[in-house]
């Protein structure tokens, strides 16, 4: 006969547990590394956004100085113009150093620091710069930066031409250079907005990419761990089935008189034994018949006390309670057996005993103990239920998650998911019924009434007739992942210092406001608020005081705006307010007056009382622009007009500004 094909031996439970632990450790390390990389990249992007604000402010101050020089030429104003461009030139120096074939990191670091970037941010900025070839948005942002530097060079050239012209013809009219200056200023403003948009889009792209990678990794970990756990559970079920079969065979053997049976004497004699006994211990009948076998000599020394207790009971009551012991096999290893004996009728030193080989049963018991250990060692919460979903067992991790003790859970009906949506509940139940499996994010209602976010994996365990016998539910705590997702969303849309909408969210809100205005046929307005005398505050008191003032500015702006208005910080000391649903221009006037009043009040920071003030440019849709870019540019121009005026702090944009244009 041909040998039967041998079934593949499943890996031991210990190995499967190691696989699960290895998967968890590997993915944890990868997720940690991705989180660290993400934090570094996001830090670099934030630094560039802050640097862009400083760059834009310096450029705007330089343009204002050049306008001033055209109207009132003097050497001090020209020197102020050159000083205002130092940040722009130092940033250019850093960029050129990094774009060399062999990047000059020392020069780049000195350039970034001289451009007033925080030293702790410089390394991330350089690393992100060198990654630009692999990140499309960053590559485009650097191209815009390069183009802006060319226009800065044109601005410097224009300033030198104006100065040389003035020196050659002191009485000549320098306003002939204003159109060229206006063109350069408009182009630089356009590039500043484009640069910020690219950084914002890059930030969102990186956030989405890291989020997707993290989700895929977590899903892979849960899928792999669930697969291994399911194999373990199936193996446990197979072990239980084998144990039941072993018990059935024992009863059959006993009834058929084919279990191990021996006739013994109290001093160890073996007068007779069946083939089953001989087979269990590896001896032949010839060895038995020759008197070579002695049951006391076949007993390990550490088990002799068990025999003595059994013999004492037999001599007292005529029989002993069956017990477990070991015999020594002919090959030298121990054979665990289940043994019971009794005196033969009318005899005081001769008896009969039955013996069952417990080798397989002992192995099963060891496996079950190991499975129970695995269940308790798991960091995920695990429930095992019967086909009616009555909880049979639960591990400590689940008790810790839910806040309930095991005695309050076992015997109760298990709730695998927490959903108030009937359609979603039906979908889950259909999946369990059809596929015997469901896995999704859900919530676990704890004993304190708190909804704990978890990743639930529920598997049905089937019997031989394909009927559902058990359910195994595995719950992984994902509260940290959910918190990370919320933090990433806030980082992408809100300013970290003031909590206001950042430039990215502002652009989206402005486009939405314009769309609503088109539908409702009502106007909307954009107020561009720039703080006056804020740079000296940073120089004199330090950035920590400056940051506290910016936070207080945000708080005061919130107090004077409506709930329907959008308040945003673009960077540095620039804020914008989007006002919707305008029925008359006086609403904007009123808001502007309240903003001016609030920001003109002293700021008490520590022991310092600091007064700064503000300049506000106002643009109204659709009179001054039909797109977000047009409105922003108009409000920016109006803000500089307000800053240049002596009699007002806010200014309404004029499409055709005149030399004597009136403010609101």
Write the layout of secondary structure elements.
Blueprint: H1 13-71, H2 75-84, H3 86-98, H4 105-114, H5 119-130, H6 136-168, H7 178-255, E1 260-265, E2 270-273, H8 275-281, H9 285-289, H10 304-317, E3 323-328, E4 334-343, E5 350-357, H11 359-377, E6 381-386, E7 391-394, H12 396-402, H13 406-409, H14 422-435, E8 437-445, E9 451-462, E10 468-477, H15 479-493, H16 503-520, E11 523-531, H17 534-541, H18 543-560, E12 566-571, E13 574-582, H19 586-600, E14 603-605, E15 608-610, E16 614-621, H20 628-644, E17 650-652
Helix pairs in contact: 1-2, 1-3, 1-5, 1-6, 1-7, 3-4, 4-5, 6-7, 7-11, 7-15, 17-18, 18-19
Major sheet: arrangement of strands: 2-1-5-4-3
Going by helix content, strand content and strand pairing, the class is alpha+beta
Please tally the β strands and state the result.
Answer: 17
Nearest-integer average pLDDT: 80
Uncertain runs with pLDDT below 50, 5 residues or more? 1-9, 657-664
Number of domains: 4
Tell me the radius of gyration.
42 Å
Distance between the termini: 107 Å
In helices, the fraction of residues equals 55-70%
Beta-strand share of residues = 15-25%
Q: Major beta sheet, specifics?
A: 5 strands, antiparallel
Treating each run of at least 4 consecutive H or I residues as one helix, how many helices?
A: 20
| Principal-axis shape | elongated
């Amino acid at each position: 006969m041909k040998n039967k094909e041998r079934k593949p031996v499943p890996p031991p439970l210990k190995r499967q547990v190691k696989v699960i632990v290895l998967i968890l450790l590997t993915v944890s390390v990868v997720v940690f590394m991705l989180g660290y990389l993400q934090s570094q990249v996001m830090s670099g992007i934030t630094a560039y956004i802050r640097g862009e604000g400083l760059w834009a402010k310096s450029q705007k101050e330089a343009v204002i100085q050049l306008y001033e020089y055209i109207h009132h030429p003097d050497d001090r104003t020209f020197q102020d113009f050159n000083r205002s461009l130092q940040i722009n030139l130092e940033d250019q120096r850093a960029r050129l150093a990094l774009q060399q074939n062999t990047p000059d990191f020392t020069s780049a670091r000195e350039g970034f620091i001289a451009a007033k970037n925080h030293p702790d941010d410089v390394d991330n900025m350089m690393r992100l710069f060198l990654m630009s070839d692999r990140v499309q948005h960053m590559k485009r942002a650097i191209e815009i930066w390069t183009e802006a530097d060319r226009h800065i060079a044109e601005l410097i050239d224009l300033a030198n031409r104006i100065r040389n012209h003035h020196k050659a013809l002191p009485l000549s009219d320098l306003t002939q250079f204003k159109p060229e200056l206006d063109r350069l200023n408009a182009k630089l403003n356009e590039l500043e907005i484009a640069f910020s948009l690219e950084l914002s889009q890059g930030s969102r792209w990186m956030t989405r990419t890291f989020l997707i990678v993290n989700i895929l990794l977590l899903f892979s970990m849960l899928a792999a761990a669930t697969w291994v756990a399911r194999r373990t559970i199936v193996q446990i079920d197979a072990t239980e089935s084998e144990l039941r079969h072993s018990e059935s065979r024992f009863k059959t053997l006993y009834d058929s008189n084919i279990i191990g049976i021996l006739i013994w004497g109290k001093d160890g004699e073996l007068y007779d034994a069946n083939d089953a006994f001989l087979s269990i211990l590896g001896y032949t009948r010839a060895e038995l018949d020759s008197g070579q076998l002695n049951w006391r000599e076949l007993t390990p020394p550490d088990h002799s006390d068990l025999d003595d207790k059994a013999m004492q009971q037999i001599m007292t009551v005529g029989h002993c309670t069956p017990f477990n012991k070991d015999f020594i096999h002919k090959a030298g290893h121990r054979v665990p057996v289940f043994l019971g004996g009794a005196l033969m009728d009318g005899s005081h030193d001769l008896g009969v005993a039955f013996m069952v080989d417990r080798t397989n049963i002992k192995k099963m018991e060891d496996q079950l103990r190991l499975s129970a250990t695995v269940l308790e060692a798991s960091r995920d919460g695990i429930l095992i239920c019967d086909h009616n979903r009555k909880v049979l067992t639960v591990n400590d991790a689940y008790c810790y998650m839910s806040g309930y003790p095991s005695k309050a859970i076992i015997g109760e009906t298990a709730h695998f998911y927490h959903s108030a949506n009937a359609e979603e509940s039906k979908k889950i139940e259909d999946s369990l019924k059809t596929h015997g499996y469901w896995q999704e994010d859900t919530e676990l209602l704890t004993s304190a009434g708190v909804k704990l976010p978890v990743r639930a994996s529920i598997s049905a365990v089937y019997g031989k007739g394909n009927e559902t016998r058990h359910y195994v539910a595995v719950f992984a705590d994902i509260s940290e992942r959910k918190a990370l997702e919320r933090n990433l969303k806030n980082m992408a849309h809100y300013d970290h210092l003031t909590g206001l909408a950042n430039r990215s969210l502002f652009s989206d809100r402005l486009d939405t406001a314009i769309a609503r205005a088109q539908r409702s046929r009502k106007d909307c307005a954009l107020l561009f608020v720039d703080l006056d005398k804020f740079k000296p505050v940073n120089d004199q008191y330090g950035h920590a005081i400056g940051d506290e003032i910016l936070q207080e500015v945000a708080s005061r702006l919130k107090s004077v705006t409506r709930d329907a208005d959008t308040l945003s910080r673009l960077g540095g000391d620039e804020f914008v307010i989007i006002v919707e649903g305008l029925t008359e221009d006086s609403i904007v006037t009123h808001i502007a007056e309240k903003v001016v009043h609030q920001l003109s009040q002293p700021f008490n920071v520590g022991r310092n009382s600091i007064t700064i003030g503000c300049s506000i440019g106002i643009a109204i849709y659709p009179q001054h622009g039909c797109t977000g870019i047009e409105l922003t540019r108009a409000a920016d121009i109006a803000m500089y007009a307000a800053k240049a005026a002596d009699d007002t702090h806010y200014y309404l944009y004029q499409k055709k500004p005149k030399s004597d244009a009136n403010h609101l």
